[in-house]
Amino acid sequence: MMNRILLFSALFAVAGFVFGAEPVAIASADKDTGFSESQIQAAEQRLATITDPAAKLFFKTAVEWAKGEPEKALKTVSELIVHYAHDERWIARGELLSAVLYAELGMLEASDVTARQVQALYAGTDVAEAATALRNEIERLKNETDVKGSVK
Amino acid sequence: MNMRKIRVLIGVGSLLCMLSGQALAAATEEFADISASGLLYEASKSLAGGNYVAAVPYLEHYMERMEPIEEDRVVALKQSVRLKMGKIYAHMEDPFTASDYLKQYTQTLPCYRPREAWKLLALTLFESGQFKSCVDAAGKALTHPLPKGLPTQAKTTDYNDLSKNEMAGFTARQMKRIEEEAGEDGETLSKAISEDVPDAEPDYTVEELVFLNMTLAEAHSKLENWEASIEPYKFVVENAVNEDRKGFAIMQLVNSLVAMKQFDEAKDFIVKLYETNARYDIRVNMALISAASVLLEEEKYDSALMLYRMILPRSDLVAYQVKKMNELRRDAGLPRVEIKVSTNDMGRVETLFGNKSSDLGGITSEFATELPPKPMELITLEESVGVLLGLPPYEDDVLYRIGLLFARAGRPWEAVTALDTIAGLDPDSAKGQDAFAESLMVFVDPLEKYELVEKRGMRFLSAYLTGRGPRRVAHILTGSYQKQERWKDIKKLLPMIEQFAPSTDPVAIQYDCELYYMQAVADVVLLNFQSAQTGFERVLTDYPDSHQKENATYWHAMTQLFLKNHQEAIDEFDSYAVTWPNGSWLPSAAFHSGICLFGLEKYDEAEASFTHVIETWPDDAVYSDACSMRADLLASKGLLDEAQRDYEEAIASADVPRQATYAVFQMAGMFELEARYEEILKVVNAYLNRYGEEADVAKATYWVGKTKLAQGLTGEAVEVYRKTIVKYGGNIQQDGVDLIITELLKISKRLLDDDEREALKESLRASLLASDNLTLQLRLRVLLASIDGAAIELGKQLILELDDLEQAPPPVLAVICDASFEQEDFSRAAEILSIFQTRYEESEFMRTALKLRGYGLFEAGEYDVAMKVIEETQALYGTEPAAAWAQVMKGRIELKQSDFDAARKTFSEVISVREWRGEPYAESTYYLGVVEEDAGDPRQAFGWYQRVYLLYKGYAQGYWAAEGYLASARCLQKLGLENDRRNTFRAMLFDKYVNRLPQAEDARTVLGAEEVLEISQMIADGLQTNLTVSIDAEVTE
C-alpha cells in the first residue's frame, strides 16, 4: 500500500511538531522497516509530558500507529475528533490522520469519506491538500482492485 | 410665511411662553379644556423630555378632536401626528398600534415621508406577526416611493387676518417674534409635528436597504416563501457591514435553500458561513441545529457536518456573548457583569447579570437608579443569553446526531465513539438506549466486531426488558448472527425475546413481529420445519396486518410443503394468490404448488402448473426450476425430446449455479438411459466451463467417469473417481462424492482384478492416513470396508464412535443403518431417517434408513407410523429389490390387524413381482401360510408352508424353509395327522438346507434320539430321501 512512513512524516511536517524537539525520530526512521523500538520509547516518554488533552490524543495516536496498531490508533484519534472538534490546533490534522488510518486498515471507503470531509472542512489549507493527495491514492488503489477482480 | 406655519408658531409660541414661566399642569387637566395647539404643545414638551408615554394621550386627543376637520392644514398636521405616533408606538414596542398609525399615514394624503413610513411599517408589521402585510410593506418601501399630495403653491399668512382662536391668544407682534426665533433656532421638536412640506426625503442608505431586505426576507421565511426569501437574503449577505447580521443572513439563506432542497447551492453558503464568526450568534446556533438535522436526513453528510461543527457548546457561546455584553456596557457607562445562575422559588433556573465587583465594589442590584439606562441592543442580548441558558442542554443532542452522521456517512470509529459517549451519559434513558443500539449496529457493519457485539448485546438484554431499546438490540443481534450464519444462536435469543415486557408502542410491536419472524426464518434454515410453522403462525395470529403478513403467509405455506402436507400447502398457496394477486411471492407460490401436486402424484396437474409458471413469468427466478420440473415429468412420460428442450432452457436461463446443476445432471441421467455418452460429456463440460469453481465438480466427475467406463476406459475412470473423492470428500454437502463412492464400489467388484483392486485400496488407505478431515475419513473408511465386504462390521464400530451423526455423509449413515439392523438396534432409526429427510432427501442411501425405521416401528407396534414409512419407501423406490421389505412388512401389519384379505393380497403381490424373486418370495409365501393359519384354515396354511420348503429352500440360507417345516408340522398336528407330522420332521432332518439350522432341533426333540441317530447314519451312508407329505381332501392318518 502507500508508504505510511512517508505519509506519517508528512503529517508531522504539517503538525510542525509543536513541542519544540526536532523531528529526529522521523529523520532517522528506516523507511523500509518502520520505527525502531527506541524511537517509539522516546516518543512515549515525550507523550507522558504533554498535558493538553487534544494534543495528547493526537500524539498518542501517532505513537500507536508507529507501534503497528492502526486500529487502536484510530480509536484514539476518534476520541480527539469527537470530543475536541473545536480545538482548531489539532482537529484538522486529527481528521487527516483518521483518513490515513482507515486506509491503513484497508477501509478505503471510510478513508475516502473522511478525506473528502477534510477537504470540505479545511479547504485551502495544507491539510486539505494532503487529503486530496490521499483521495487520489485511494482512487488508484480502488482501480487496482477492480482490475484484479475483473482479471479473475 | 404661510397660514399653516403661523398657526404652528402660535402653538410654539405658547410653548415658549409656558417654558418661560407659565407651566401647564398636564397630569390632571381635562384634555377637553386644552386647545388643539395646546395639545400639540404638551405633546411636544413631553417628547422633548423623552417622556414618550406622556405625549401619547395629547396626541391621541388631538387626533380625536381634529378627526372631522378636513382642512388642508389640519390634514397635513394630522398626517404628521400619525407618523409621529407610529414612531412613538414603535419605540414603546407596541407594533400593533404603531402599524395602525403608519398604515393610515401611508394610505392618506399628503404623505411627505413615505420611505420612512413604509420602512417603519414593514418593521412593525413584522414584529406584530403580520408577515404577509410586512412583505407588501417592505416591497413597497423597496420601490423607493416618492412623497404624495404635495401642495401645488405656497401660501403666505397675514397675522392680521387670523381669528383670535387661531392666534391662540397671541398678538400679531408676538407671532412675528415667534417666527423669527423659530428661524434663528433652526430645527425644533415641534417642527416634526408640522403641516409643512418637509425637505425632500433622502433615499435609503445602504444600511437601510439592508434592513429592509432583511425584514422582507425574514417575513418570507415566516411565510415559508422560501424562493422569495432568497434574493433579499442575498442582498443582505452581499451588503451588510455588520458581521453578525451578515452571518445571520447566510444562516437564514441556508435554511431557505435547504427547505427548497437546493443542497448544492446551500453547501456553497455553508462554506461561507463556516468562514464567518456567525457561529457566535445565538440565533445562528439554534438555526444551525435544525438546518443540520434536515441535511442529515437528506444524507448531505458533508454539509451537515460542517454545520454541526459550527455549533458551539453553550459555555463557549455564553462566554463570547458576555464579552460582547460587557463591551456594550462599557460603552454605555455600565459596570461589567458576570453570569450568575440560580434557581428561583419556583425551581426555575434564572440567570442574573451581577455586576462585577471590580467595577462596583460589590455586587449590587442591576436596577440601581444611579446607573445609566441600558441600550436596547444590550437588553436584547441579555434576553437572548437568558433564553440560551434556560434551554435544555443541546450539546448532547448535537453529539448524538454527529454520531449518527458519522455512522451513515461511513466513519465508523468516530461514530461509535460519539454514540458510546451519549449512551454512557444516561444508559437508562431512551436517548441512551438509542445511542447504544446505533453504536451496536456500527460494530456489526462495517466493523464486524461480532464478539464484542454479542458481549455487549447480551449484557444489555440481561439488564433491559422494556421499551424499544431491548427490541432494537435483539434485532441487531439477530442480524449479526444471520450475517455469520449462526442460526442456532438466533434461536437462543427466543427466550429473551419472550421475556420482553408487553408494549403498546407501535414501533415496539413492529419490532416484536419482526423478531418472531426472524426466529421462524432461522427455524427454516435449521430445517426445524414444525417449529418454523409454529413461528410463522405466531406472526400471523399475534400480529395480524403486520408488515410481515405477506411473507409469513408464503413461508407458512412453504413449511407445509417441507412437512409434506402437500394439500394444505396447495390450499395456502392458493389463498396467498387470492389475497396478493400481485404479490412478490406469486411466481414462487405457483411453482411450489406444482411441486406439491407432484408430491400428491397428480402429475398432469403438476405439469400444467409448471407450464403456467413458464408461460407467465419467464423472467422470474423460478422459471429455470419450472423448466426442470416439467422436463422431469415429460421424461417420465417418455417424451425425451421435449424433456431435453426444457432441460436446456433451464440451463440457459439459470440464475444461480444450483438451477443449472440440477438440469445438467437430470439430462445426463436421461442421456444415460439411451447410452448417449458423448452428449453427456458435452453438456457436463459446458457446465464446468460456465461455472468453474461454483460448479458441482464432484457430480460432474461422476458423469465423466461413467462416460469413460462406457468407453472402456476403466483405469481412467477409477483414477478420476479416486482423485475426486479425496479432493471433495471432506465437504459433507458434496453428494456427488457419494455417487462416486457407489460407482467405484461397483467398478471394484465387477471390473477390477485382484491386483487392481488392491492397488486402489492401497491408494485409498494412504489418503485416509493423510487426511484430518472427519467427513473424508468416514467416506474413505466406508468405501474400503465395502470393498472388503466388511461394511456391517464398520457400521457396528461407527455406532460406538459417532455420537453426533451430523458430520456423517449418506454412505456412512447407510452403513450405520445396516449394522443397526443386524443388531436389531432401532434406537437411532428415527434420528437417522430425519437427517436423511431433511438434508439428503435425494440420496440413494436413504433406503436403509427407511428400512431401519420401518422395522423399528414395527417392533414397537407403531403400525400406523410404520405404514407411513412403508408408503414413503414404496413411493420413492417402487418395486426395486431393496424395497421388497416394505411390501412384506405391509402384509405383516395387515396380518397383525387381522385384515386377512388385505394381507393375503399384499403377500400375493410380492410373489408376482419379478424384481423381488428371492428371499421376499420365501418370506411372503411363508406369511401366506400364517394368514391361513391365523384365519383358522390349517389345511390351506399347510399348503403354503410346504411350498416354502419345497421351492425356496435355497434363499436366506434356508431360514424360511426351516420355518416352513416347523409350521407345516404345526398344522398337521392341528389336523391330528401325527404320522404326517413326524414325516415332516423326518424330511426336515434329511434336508441338507435346513438340518443344521437351529429350527432342526425341534424336529430332533419330537423324533427322539434313537430315530435321529438312525437318520444321521442313513445320511452318512449317502441315503437320499424325498419324503413328502400330502394332505387329501379328507384328513387321514
Give a description of the structure.
In chain A, 72% of the residues lie in helices and 0% in strands. With 152 residues, chain A is mainly α. In chain A, α1 packs antiparallel against α6 (91-104), α4 (53-66) runs antiparallel to α5 and α7 (108-121) packs antiparallel against α8 (126-151). The radius of gyration of chain A is 15 Å and the shape is globular. The model of chain A is unreliable at 13-33 (pLDDT under 50). In chain B, β1 (337-343) and β2 form a beta hairpin. Chain B contains 54 helices and 2 strands. Chain B has a two-stranded antiparallel ribbon with strand order 1-2. In chain B, 70% of the residues lie in helices and 1% in strands. Classes of the chains: A mainly alpha (152), B mainly alpha (1037). The A-B interface holds A 74-75, 78-79, 81-83, 85-86, 98, 102, 107, 109-110, 113-114, 116-117, 120-121, 123 and B 271, 274, 301-302, 305-306, 309, 312-313, 316, 399, 402-403, 409-414, 416-418, 421, 446.
Pick out its properties:
heterodimer; A: 152 residues; mainly alpha; 8 helices; B: 1037 residues; two-stranded antiparallel ribbon; 54 helices; 2 strands; 1% strand
| Mean pLDDT rating of chain B | 87
Instruction: Report the C-alpha radius of gyration of chain A, rounded.
Output: 15 Å
Large-scale geometry of chain B: rod-shaped
Strand order of the largest sheet of chain B: 1-2
Global structural class of chain A: mainly alpha
Biggest sheet layout of chain B:
2 strands, antiparallel
Oligomer kind:
heterodimer
Question: Measured on Cα atoms, how large is the radius of gyration of chain B?
Answer: 53 Å
Work out the number of β strands of chain B.
Answer: 2
Q: Report how far apart the termini of chain A are.
A: 21 Å
The dominant shape of chain A is globular
Work out the helix count of chain A: 8
Order of helices and strands of chain A: HHHHHHHH
Largest sheet of chain A: none
